[in-house]
């Protein structure tokens, strides 16, 4: 038996999507096993160095309760052109039904970047999220780390 082979089929989740622009493809995973579904630009825009823009994607989604959608940058755009998502990851709550929009930022200090209508600009990942009850207490349990914050777990 190959220990690297997964014998169980992955859990399938149904995501209801409303296409707001009939000429754009629906978000899909580019390859089997990919976590993110590509989101595309509904409008063309030129991002000057340091400029950001809110770009509509042409889709609205119904995230199931107990799940959330997270809009992440595309690694190729980030590595090759310095294009990222400002509030990465952007959170899509299960109750939101409006058009997905992506706030992209050109971090390049010298070159403008053109996004054409239909270009893949971000990716959407769905993940389970905990539904929590907030319980106020007068003090928290003691741990080894305690209240030591940023940089407290090592020098690197």
Summarize the entry for a quick read.
This protein is mainly beta and 156 residues long. It contains 1 helix and 10 strands, in the order E-E-E-E-E-H-E-E-E-E-E.
Question: Which descriptors apply to this entry?
Answer:
4-stranded antiparallel β-sheet; magnesium; mainly beta; 1 helix; magnesium ion binding; Deoxyuridine 5'-Triphosphate Nucleotidohydrolase, Chain A; 35% strand; single chain; 156 residues; nucleotide metabolism
CATH topology of the domain at 30-128: Deoxyuridine 5'-Triphosphate Nucleotidohydrolase, Chain A
Q: Which strands sit side by side, in order, in the main sheet?
A: 1-4-8-6
CA-based gyration radius: 20 Å
Report the CATH superfamily of the domain at 30-128.
Deoxyuridine triphosphatase (dUTPase)
- CATH architecture label of the domain at 30-128: Distorted Sandwich
Estimated share of beta-strand residues: 25-35%
Order of helices and strands: EEEEEHEEEEE
User: Quick one: overall form?
Assistant: globular
- The poorly predicted ranges are none
Distance between the termini: 40 Å
Count of helix runs:
1
Q: What's the average pLDDT?
A: 92
Judged by helices, strands and strand pairing, the structural class is: mainly beta
Tell me the major beta sheet.
4 strands, antiparallel
Question: Strand tally, please?
Answer: 10
Helix content: under 10%
The CATH class name of the domain at 30-128 reads Mainly Beta
Pathway: Pyrimidine metabolism; dUMP biosynthesis; dUMP from dCTP (dUTP route): step 2/2
EC number: 3.6.1.23
Domain dUTPase-like: 25-154
Catalytic activity: dUTP + H2O = dUMP + diphosphate + H(+)
